[in-house]
Amino acid sequence: MKDLIQYSEQIKTSSDQKVRNRAITAIWRIIQKLSFDELREIRDSTEDKYIRKEIDLEIWKRELDRSPENLIKIIQNSKDYDKVDEAILELGEQKYKKAADLLIGLLKCENKSIRNAAALALENIPTQIALEPLIEAIKKDPDNCQMLTAPLSVIDCTVAVEFLVELFIKKTDAPIARLHILACFKSGAIKKITPEVAKKIKIKLTNAFDKYKEDRDIKALYELIKRVYIDDNSWGEFDDEFDDFMEGFDFLVNK
């Protein structure tokens, strides 16, 4: 109980987002381990609104009717974003294909959390018609690209290859999005790269590397594309040995 109160205070008072995020995660982990009786006892004995809210949500999740029909009703009718998030993610976990159109529509939702949940669910329900709405959602809110790029590696992203390279270069502060984009090239989501497009990509990547020489990720993408898609030696090599900067990316490069 004391730990919950302490973390809750950090969420309320800290100006450091990382501290708040760690506190949110810590509360979630503690609550996950509690029994129904323990949850109810803490909820009834605390006046902390955040803790009561999180416990109520956890109890609701455990008692939730997880039939697809009920989950869809929650998404369509509930005004509680946390409950809608859970329903969306559960549909994804169930790989309920009939929900694809509903999830795609949610990519236009004004609430960022709902858009992210819909994208994560679509990762488990691959559908080609999601590509354009996903790209539009990323363009509308590029700072929120980390989750929105998640489903791209499981659909055909060939027509979006230039956009993905540009996004990769720009989002130096989005490592998860960069991993998702790398996964697109490794997974075969990019079916081919024409010589004309390859030339444009090479120029973009080499210019970016000239500007951001310490950005090892740009090197990684450059070499990955060259090794997987380019048949000749026209792209050339970076000066450094590939293996020196590819630690951690081997699972993406070894085709």
Comma- or semicolon-separated keywords:
mainly alpha, 67% helix, single chain, 255 residues, 16 helices, disordered C terminus
Total count of helical runs of at least 4 residues? 16
Helical content class: 55-70%
Give the rounded overall mean pLDDT: 88
Output the radius of gyration. 22 Å
Structure class: mainly alpha
Assembly state here? single chain
Structure description:
- This protein is an all-alpha fold and 255 residues long.
- The protein has 16 helices and no strands.
- Among the domains are: 2-63; 156-255, no CATH class.
- Helix 7 runs antiparallel to helix 8 (112-123) and helix 13 packs antiparallel against helix 14.
- The longest helix is centred in the last third of the chain and has 17 residues, at 195-211.
Explain briefly what this protein structure is.
The protein has helices at residues 2-13, 17-32, 36-45, 49-63, 68-77, 81-93, 100-106, 112-123, 131-140, 145-148, 161-170, 175-187, 195-211, 216-229, 242-245, 250-253. Helix 6 runs parallel beside helix 8 (112-123).
Topology:
Elements (H helix, E strand, L loop, with lengths): L1 H12 L3 H16 L3 H10 L3 H15 L4 H10 L3 H13 L6 H7 L5 H12 L7 H10 L4 H4 L12 H10 L4 H13 L7 H17 L4 H14 L12 H4 L4 H4 L2
Helix pairs in contact: 1-2, 2-4, 3-4, 5-6, 6-8, 7-8, 11-13, 12-14, 13-14
